[in-house]
Write a structure and sequence with these properties.
It comes from Pararhodobacter oceanensis. It holds the Pfam family VTT_dom. This is Cytochrome B. The protein is mainly α. The protein is built from 9 helices and no strands. It is elongated, with a radius of gyration of 18 Å.
Length: 192
């Protein structure tokens, strides 16, 4: 099933309204869809490199708006469904402690999920569920998603189709290493 969704997503790159399709995929991926918008974005940029940054901008805006939907799902589903279940199980206190721990990391979970291959939808829903401040969520989502999508756009615009394999196979790992080094740097400055 995932392979079928992947192939369907790739096929949208040739559609006359591919930019709208990208917006749709980026929007729903931020809360429920399993295929990242990068797949469609890469195919579109390889086909029309002159539109690389417009494509990245559409993916960014749609992904952040979709992230707000994920945030709302987390915020609304917890109050209406999750809390009564947790109360009946006597687990409200442990879930509140988890929520406080999640939010103590401030913007880091959103930044990491937005930049790396980690499913962004998990963090959008968790952010709403734990009550991460909405402004923090929005600003960090914009920075993370724009960073990711514009990096892909720049690499493809600059190096063309030959960089595609690197992006699809290794860019996620490189981004994770960058985030780890960045977090390590902040830690070192703060505690050393």
């Amino acid at each position: 099933m995932i392979r079928t969704l992947y192939e369907w997503t790739i096929s949208l790159a040739a559609h006359p309204r591919a930019l709208w399709a990208l917006a749709f995929i980026a929007f729903i991926e931020a809360s429920v869809f399993p295929i990242p918008p990068d797949v469609l974005m890469i195919a579109m940029i390889v086909a029309t490199p002159s539109k690389a940054f417009r494509i990245a901008a559409v993916a960014t805006v749609a992904s952040v708006l979709g992230g707000l939907l994920g945030y709302a799902i987390g915020a609304l589903a917890y109050e209406q469904i999750g809390l009564p279940i947790l109360e009946s199980l006597g687990k409200v206190d442990s879930m509140e402690a988890f929520s406080e721990r999640f939010n103590s990391f401030e913007f880091w979970p959103v930044l990491i999920a937005g930049l790396t291959p980690f499913p962004y939808k998990v963090i959008t829903i968790m952010s709403g569920w734990t009550g991460l401040p909405l402004a923090t969520f929005i600003i960090t989502s914009i920075v993370a998603r724009a960073g990711r999508f514009f990096l892909v756009a720049w690499l493809l615009h600059r190096y063309g189709a030959q960089i595609r394999d690197f992006i699809e196979r290794r860019l996620g790992l490189m981004t994770i290493l960058f985030v780890v080094l960045l977090a390590g740097g902040f830690y070192a400055v703060k505690f050393l």
